[in-house]
Structure formats: structure tokens, C-alpha cells
Amino acid sequence: MATSSVSTASTSSPKPKASGSSEAGGFAVTKRLRKELMTLMMTPTPGVSAFPESDSNLFKWAGTLTGPDGTVYEGLTYRLNLTFPPEYPYRPPTIKFDTPCYHPNVAMKGGTYVLTDKWSAVYSVHTVLVSLQSLLGDPNNASPLNVEAAELWADQEAFKEKVVASYKPL
């Protein structure tokens, strides 16, 4: 990575602010998100992808997640919406399933998945997506957002019927 010198002259042009954040913090977040995007593009992982919705806003991403093999989600593809706060990576992104997902850890109304518990700044978009894909086949039933799904999980045949009935690809 090339280094650059910082000019203190009053004629230097100000850098544009990142949307919704302070100037210094916005640049750090933007730099981090650009680095994470490059990692996703250079080392793709089967079944997960994400990218900014537009070139002008790195704080809103669209993602996809395919169900892991050998689970009731196998063969299904889910679209996600990731919104990064100005304090990212110190605060987690908000993740919403745009494709309806019947799962113990996904709210049926609104498709929200909550990352606040055990969040760490060392996590990246890639690690979040891979973890989320893994969670499809191994939910945290001790802390469900969808209690009905958590209770039904033990009966995989009945659970799969609910998954298929609620799945509506976009």
C-alpha cells in the first residue's frame, strides 16, 4: 500500500464527508468497508456474496446467502440488506433478510437478524456472512427471535415444510 504525505497548507481541498458520520470517522469506516469489499471480491466464498448497493454509498450493501448443503435450506438463496452504522466496526451492521426466512434467529416480521450479542470489531462482512450461513443449519435456539421456529426445529420434516411455505424468492 502506498503512503502519502499530509499537507497542512490552508489551500488543501477538504475531503468529502462519508454519509452520516463525522469526517475523520467516516473516512476510517469508508476505508475499512472498501478493504472488506476487495477481500470479498478477491477471495470469494461459495454461497455468500455482498457488495454496495451503489458507488456513492458504502454504508448500504446487498448480499446473498445460499443454504448450506445437508440442511433444510439447501438449494435456497436468500437476499440480504446490510446497513453499516457510522461507528462500524465498533457497532455491528444491521442485517435484514429481504427474502422471507423461517428460522429461529430471524424475525418473521421484517426479516431482522440481530448481531449485537458478542459483536467484535475484528469481524468483517465476510465473517458475518459465513457465520450467518452456518447459523442456518445450526441455530441458536436458546435465544430465538422466532419462538415458533425454535420450538419446531427438533422436527426437521415439519420445519422444512414451514421453510418451503415461507420462502418466496425475490
Automatic annotation (TrEMBL):
UBC core domain sequence ranges: 28-170
Xref: InterPro entries: Ub_conjugating_enzyme, UBC, UBQ-conjugating_enzyme/RWD
Entry-linked SUPFAM superfamilies: UBC-like
Region of interest: Disordered: 1-25
Skewed-composition ranges (Low complexity): 1-22
Keywords: Ubl conjugation pathway
Name of the protein this chain belongs to: Ubc11 protein
